[in-house]
User: Fold Nucleoside-diphosphate-sugar epimerase from Williamsia sterculiae.
Amino acid sequence: MHVFVTGGTGTIGSAVVDELLANDHTVLALARSDASADALARAGAEVVRGTIADLDTLSTSAGRADGVISLAFTPDYDTPDGLAAAVVEEGAALASLGEALLGSGRPIVTVSGTPWIPGRLSTERDPLPEEGPVGGRAVSVNRLLELSSRGVRAVAVRMPRTVHNRGTGGFAGLLTEQARRTGVAGYPGDGAQRWPAVHALDAAVLFRLALESAPAGTAWHAVADEGDAVRDIASVIGRRLDLPVESVSEQSLGPFGPVFALDQPASSAHTRETLGWEPVHLGLLEDLENIEP
Assistant:
């Protein structure tokens, strides 16, 4: 299968590109910079220059491909509306990609987050919340899945709060960056809230499986660790950076503060049983031991 990939140099995307190429697929990858283009070419992908704001480029590239994996999401956390702008940009990109595939029966796999359900593990059957700081992403994903009735094999892979590799990535990576800036390995509240996690290399396998065989309109959970306590995550970060570990306010954690504070464990039992996905790489707490002091 010739696969058009956006976001192919990120923590998830670079692993997805390698996974596709290692399993007899070819890759056409979007690159917004010379450095990204060079990295993708070295990996063995064909490169098309542009960004996810270039809707004509997205449409044309999707038309050239047998399937699409859409991963690009580029929020600017240094500006007040950077997150909201990225949500709008991603939504327009998904709409353009979906439009290009109408009536073709070809697959498009996009990324979303696992939902949070009070008092229990979330499952693949639970709907995505369309409210909150990133609720707009769920709206866009749900609209894409609705194209299943119009001849698009649209699929969502729901990612946990931390997708990690070599001790970096995801919400845990944001906590590490915050700790380096502030001198405190902080966690919101009492730190008992749980975050699910997955190694990027395991997540990449699920994206490939979903592309190859997942039915139209379905959602799958790329969850390896069902829920690590945030206090335990912060404790490893603090030890690796030789910093104190303390409770901090939600506000000090930026736009994701309210999300950081949620207890949000998730299950992938249905995904494992149905698609045969089985994570084999390091869990989050073990991988955080790779943080550079």
User: Anything to note?
Assistant: The two ends are 42 Å apart (CA to CA).
